[in-house]
Write a structure and sequence with these properties.
267 residues, alpha+beta, 13-stranded mixed beta sheet, 3-stranded antiparallel beta sheet, 6 helices, disordered N terminus
């Protein structure tokens, strides 16, 4: 993927680096980053999100995702930690998406339902059905790790500025910071992502973000934080492996069973 290189940070406030011989405003530079993100064929992301409830409970989701768009859509998501208050998902969760087929492995499902197979399989359309909350929740996390969606949300910012050059994940980057209004930002997403994003942000009106973009205008790190009615959240995503070959395959057929019909596996 060809791209102009970041040569130097000039000025301050809303001024961004020079890209080739053209000095771009910070908003324009991040818009370019969004375009580059849309064109990425594969990447790996490590992410962690921490949140609190107005009544005092705290939660955490932590994991990683490998993504590819060609030759077919494929995602391998591993959640090491899924917890809220005294509830947790023992053993975490793993979800593999291959085209229109989803495979989900949630250890707690096996214990709660007496299932004999560690993986469950369904079409993506089936995951909208009743009794499949755990599978739907696991795959719903894919959007929270979504590179293109995360950067697109940031482009709704009206106060973005370049604040310096820093290393992120061992890569030299330009650091941008600002806020974006949730209502306006989610309108920029595709229809299939808009409702879920609005639900994830809840009643938060404005999100504070920081974005670190490399010399190819690709994001290497994104953080977001916000609060509403006494609740808070903050999330960090670290991206790597852009357009590198990945191997994502279905679990062995002998380990795949039907979808359990129980709804709750937290204990």
């Amino acid at each position: 993927m060809s791209a102009a290189s970041v040569v130097a940070l000039t000025g301050c406030g809303s001024t961004s680096p020079q890209l080739g011989n053209v000095k771009l405003a910070a908003a324009e530079a991040v818009a370019q980053t969004a375009q580059k993100a849309e064109a990425v064929n594969s990447y790996t992301v490590d992410a962690v999100a921490e949140f609190s409830h107005p009544e005092g409970d705290t939660g955490k989701v932590q994991g990683r995702m490998v993504y590819q768009s060609k030759p077919q859509l494929a995602v391998d998501l591993t959640l090491d930690t899924v917890a809220f208050g005294s509830n947790s998902l023992p053993g975490g969760a793993r979800a593999i998406l291959l085209g229109d087929t989803a495979y989900v492995k949630v250890d707690a499902l096996k214990s709660a339902t007496g299932a004999t197979k560690p993986w469950i399989k369904a079409s993506v359309a089936d995951l909208d059905g009743e009794g499949q909350n755990e599978a739907n929740d696991a795959l719903g996390r894919v959007q929270q790790f979504d590179l293109a969606a995360a950067v697109k949300l940031v482009t709704a910012s009206k106060d973005i500025k370049a604040v310096g050059t820093e290393s992120a994940g061992g890569v030299d980057t330009t650091h941008y910071s600002g806020t974006f209004p949730v209502d306006e930002a989610v309108k920029l997403l595709d229809d299939d992502k808009r409702a879920r994003a609005a639900d994830q942000f809840g009643k938060v009106k404005d999100i504070k973000f920081d974005l670190w973009a490399d010399a190819q205008s690709l994001p290497r790190k994104i953080t977001m934080s916000g609060s509403a009615e006494g609740g808070t959240f903050n999330a960090t995503m670290l991206f790597k492996g852009y357009n590198e070959p990945v191997e994502i395959s279905a679990p062995p057929a002998s380990e795949v069973g039907e979808i359990p019909q129980q709804k709750h596996v937290f204990n």
